[in-house]
Amino acid sequence: MTLSDEELAAILERQYQELLRKKQELERRRIQQAIEEARRQEMLRTILTPEARERLSNIKLVRPDIARLVEDHLITLALQGRITRPITDEELKEILAEVYERTRREIRISIKEKR
User: Is residue 74 included in any domain, yes or no?
Assistant: First the structure.
């Protein structure tokens, strides 16, 4: 079975269009994520004092999962109107301690000796 030049060109064109569509979709998602992240950071800028923001960004380097949980929690509280003034570094420390206690996993290692 051989394909004519026209059939081959049509197949290649369809594949090209599909790849182009996928690339455009990925680019659209990337832009949407960047916009959402900019909104999150702007909201956090109003929720936290500069010292608290710095602490949270340091935590994000070491434990991005914990930092994301805290950010989500703070944004939720702000959207509900439960945060009336910027959160200080000391208050953020307390929140971090609470989140850490809730998410901490206890690891136990037991060694069984062969007899």
Answer: yes
